[in-house]
Amino acid sequence: MRNLFKFIIRYHVTLLFIVIESLSLFLTIQTNSFQRASFINSSTEISGNIYSWFSSITEYISVKEDNEKLAKENLELRKLLKSNYINNVLTLKTINDSIYKLKYDYFTAKVVNNSVIHQNNYLTLNKGYNQGVRKDMAVINPQGIVGIIKDVSQNFSIVIPAININAHISAKIKKWGCFGTISWDGKDYRKAQLNEIPFNIKLIKGDTLVTSGYSSMFPEGIMVGTVSDFDLNDGKDFYNININLSTDFMSLNHVYIISNIYKEEQAKLENVINHD
Amino acid sequence: MISLLPQNIIRFLILVLLQVLILNNIQLSGFINPYIYILFILLLPFETPAWLLLILGFITGLTIDIFSGTMGMHATATTLAAYSRPYILTLFSPRDGYESRTSPTLKHYDISWVIRYSLIIILIHHSTLFLVEVFRFSGFFYTVLRILISSTFTFILVIISQFLFYKK
User: Fold this and answer.
1) Looking at the DSSP assignment, which residues form a beta bridge with residue A164?
2) CATH, range A169-247
3) Domain edges within chain A
4) Do B132 and A25 touch (CB under 8 A)?
5) Does ipTM come in above 0.85?
6) Cα(first)–Cα(last) distance of chain B, in Å?
7) pTM recorded for the entire structure
């Protein structure tokens, strides 16, 4: 027993080091997996408040660019206004529209924290549970897709952007309709990879990619990016495709959160199949 | 002379805020991200006991982690850097040891000593940080490149701050 105490006293620094280092590594492994501890939620609340205070100062720097982006989007929306179209149907009657039902609901949110240089990049948004944001909602901006809500606290939410090595988003080639998965190799925040496109598809550089609508998070047809280059591995059935992301992740500021009203219904049905 | 405790607390706050509010947003070409907060560990007084160094390292890392949303990564790296500091100090100690009431800065020691001391601790810290971040050995040389480039930038910032605040 005395020898044990002697040992502990002699090596107390190394022992303490081993304890603290294991604790840190444990935390790292624990939280790198997709289920984050609820402890993080409360700390997001604190750091989120500091970030939103700071970004309320710095957002003036990019205000010009943001205004341009918003003005451009306004223009696009204005073009869709009903008053811009001439009615060339001669006979008119009102019908009670039971075919179209609202499927997707949109919220606006502001990015209060952002990173593009890590392997596991995350964004923090200034809307949370109290504002109706839930896990697994889709996030886009006027340029294209941004990511998926991963975790929600009372007033903030965390997004896994497309540029996170764990992110997988379903996308299709607009011209052909064949779909694959977007993933990121952790290198350049302007590029991503598209997998699972079979070799019989004829690709050309610059082909447009949009969301497939199969994932029940993103509506169909939201811009993802364009094909920048591709090659075919010998003996493999699938292309290696590099794509240019249309979203500029470096200058994210205002984003839209999309909630699919029928998501739960769809997920419930699909779960029944998966469990059989 | 400001006494040591408040001086270090203020330095801690300034470095953490500088790191999370400004340097974490630099992100040049997806490669370069200096981690200047390690300067807090570098500048602690010589008399700091080893166990306190470890705890301070852990707290510093954890604070940065909370702000970067990367629980544990910075804590792991900073704790290792703090653990290695006494050994580095012994390795580079002058012939008659360190004088009491001096700090590891340009004010008391010459530039070549400061460069060797900072560079080794920065390399230990950054290597751990980036290796823990990728957590695998695929793309090893890409990680090494990131370690070297980011270490260089942190090192440059550390030396600049030494010249700004501690020049004789």
Assistant:
1) A120
2) 2.40.10.350
3) 2-26, 38-79+102-164+253-264, 169-247
4) yes
5) no
6) 15
7) 0.60
